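LuxR family transcriptional regulator
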Amino acid sequence: MVPDRLPSAGLSDCLVGRAREMAVLKRSAEAARRGQAGLVTLQGPPGIGKTSLLHSFIASDACREMTVLHGACSEIDAGAGYGGVRALFRSLGLSAEDAAFSPLLSGGARRALPALATGSGSSAYESSAAYSVMHGLYWLTANLMAERPLLLALDDVHWCDERSLAWIDFLLRRSEEMPLLVVLAQRDEAVPLASALADVAARPSSAFLELSPLSRQDVVELVGYAYQGAAESTFVRDVAALPGGNPMLLKRLLLELKSAGVRPDEHGVNRAREIAGQVVSDSVRGMLRALPEWIRTLARAAAVLGDAPAERLGALAGLPPTLVDEGVKVLRKAEILAPDGLGLAHDLVRSAVLEDMDGDALAELRTSAALLLSDESLPPEQVANQLLLLPRLTAPWMTAVLCEAAGQAESRAAPEAAVRYLTRAREADPDSLALRLQLARCVSQTEPAEAVRQLQAVLESPLDVRTRAGVAVQFGGVCLLAQQSPAAVRVLEEVLQQLDCELGRDPGPADVELRTEVQAALLRAGADEKSTIGQVRERASSMPAPPGDTTAQRQLLAMQALLGALGGDDVEGCIDKARRAIRATGSPTEESLFASSFTLSLADEAEEALEALDRLLQASQRSAAAWSYVLALAIRAFVLHGIGALPEALADAQTSVGIIADERWGHTSAMPQIALAMVLTDLGEPQRAASVLDAIERPNLDRLVTEYPWYAQVAARTRWSLGDVEGGLELLYACGRSLDESGVANPVYLPWWLDAAGMLMDLGRTGQARGLAEHGSELAERWGTPRAKALASLGGGLTTPGPKGIELLVASAEMFAGSPARGEHARAEFLVGRALLAEGDRRSARDHLRTAADLAQRCGTFKLGEMARTLLIEAGGRMRKMSGSPLGMLTGMERKVADLAAAGTSNRGIAEALFVTVRTVETHLTSAYRKLGVTSRADLAPVLSAREDLVKKLPLRAAYPPARR
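Tokens:
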């Protein structure tokens, strides 16, 4: 048997005993070339041959038709943000200043630049967000896979940073049917730097290869290769036993034996035993002792700097170029340096080279290395990586470099790396307020509860009132992430009181803006949970409405509008504030758009609400802000449902749920699932709706102002549709209690009382039903919009017998006709027709039932439409059996894809817009073609435009004119 690979470089490159592992790798490569993505993890102790196997596989015919990106992580650069990614993509040259013009970075792939940049220019990407960068890296790999199958091989991943591993996981979750193979190699005894490695390795479709010690036959081959001939069996047996079958240790032992002139016979066994104790360190130390001091110095420089240019090695070692070149040749021949670079051959060799240096000398050498890198104007992260290895920081410039490195890591959207730098910097300067705040900001992105603890400690320290106010604003935002908003409300209330005392009656512009920031933060934090919303709503009502000229003012306006709308008071004032929050000079923030769109929808200004949400969706697509996009889709689904556009609402809700299904943070959401369940129930699919609701895992759902009552009402309607009236009623009362605890009194926002009144009437409990209808009527009188009054009249009609009840139902239908609530209008017309038919007025009933059926069909609520048609025929009318639009056969994602394709968007553009893969787009588009009976994009537009666009053709505006300032 011939060794797998016998290169001329030396014994270190000889690969034996890995035929089984190589076969697995080659099968995985073949599957990747067929379009089946895979992950292979190589694991074993140091020196077991992971790197040799990886190199041999890359050089084999199996990878010849693939694009191969190969990199290795190192202890020197351990944890640098996206360091593993840069190691993989280094050969593509995408870290240069002109990389943005590379075809590989076209479209969404351009967002990968912050991760790839190596120079100080990476700090220019100040708005980078983690999802955006990973999204860009995904599209970069998609561009590569469009040309050839792709192999990503990353060695020593136990040194890999969190962001790179998170991206590999992100990539694999989106690449199941793509020509991709990822191979990772790691030590089994090393504790990974990043916990994300366990998530990647645990993927169910991955292959795991534990490299075992070499067999006796493998050792025979290795000894034969080393000595170019046969070896005696006793020599082979004893040599194999000494390093435990570890290939690297065996090779180093054989190299030492050959250098000492030991023959592979029984006489050589004793000599082998003598030198085999600590074979690598002894061998390396022995070789270095036989070399001149200047070569030993060069080896130490290489151990500290890693694979660095020769000029840098020489500068650190204090050697001229000629001696560096000569020393490199000597160290390569001794297999201390790697054959293909200026780094050391292995981490074990690095340890052996530095072993004889005392701690102070090594620290001095690392400090010199850091200064050298800084003098060369290399990125702060690269300098800081040397400082992280020091036992202590001894000079102010070290802290400054670490802070710069943290800023660079933040600009890459690599908060874990920034935390590592800042934590070390704080050891030297524990009282620095700027350091503590920057550290808390970075920690909040991965561990918000820990960031809350850190900021609480800052707030407990002596601070002037203005500084304390700024910290409190940061604290408020972090508390929302950690679901600890009551703590934020307590702090912000206290700070606001202190500010009022400090600033007096005539504060300057900067102080006014600071107070506005605190006020806006207080309202945002307090509106999250039931225990605090009443307190901040009172605050909001007493605050003067600002003009909306600054970001803080717009945020304050939006929250004042929302809190006022939830309280059910002063509809015109709420509309005015919401409009100013999104129309004032400057770009409205995400928070302003969310809050204002919600307010406008409650005030019957559906068209403006949808415009605001469309702006938010477009901004989220541009910045690849997936969570904002998902939440905006879910809220738009609620608004569309409210105006009776059920197919459109279904498309938004299904798309939002489909996106979170691919995300690890999907379990923290509830709004997308609630929106989908709401639409499914109205479409006559309560069983599916119940399954969607059962899958919600949102923590502390019952504490939240918006999500829980919404969940309770939708779950109640689902139970009611499934025949569980008592269960539905119990959930509706829970919804009502939750709203009462929050002080929410808007009749349009979750009219649980109307649903409960209907259920009570089904159970024959008329008195209780009438009491709930009267409660709704009181709320509607205060809010006063056409929809609110129509809902109140509908409740009265449902619970009042005889002609008076019919009169109220007719009034309700008329009022709904003047509101955006087309679905409720259809329901009211149906109830009027049913009541008239029960009274024997068949002729009048037919008019209302026909209107109900027509409206229901236009809204897409075919269940209600069929019910109206059935009663219409019973009343003596005629109507064809309803046939659903072909669009009704499309899933939500298919509808979204078809709409974008009809508008001329490419498959790639659709994928980027919807945060999915091109393969997913192709699948949905093919399915849409089949369901709609078309064969091309050109055929889509006529079919899609055949459905009436409710948003444009129905009267969506209420009776209120635009408020004037």
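The CA atoms of residues 500 and 507 lie 9 Å apart.
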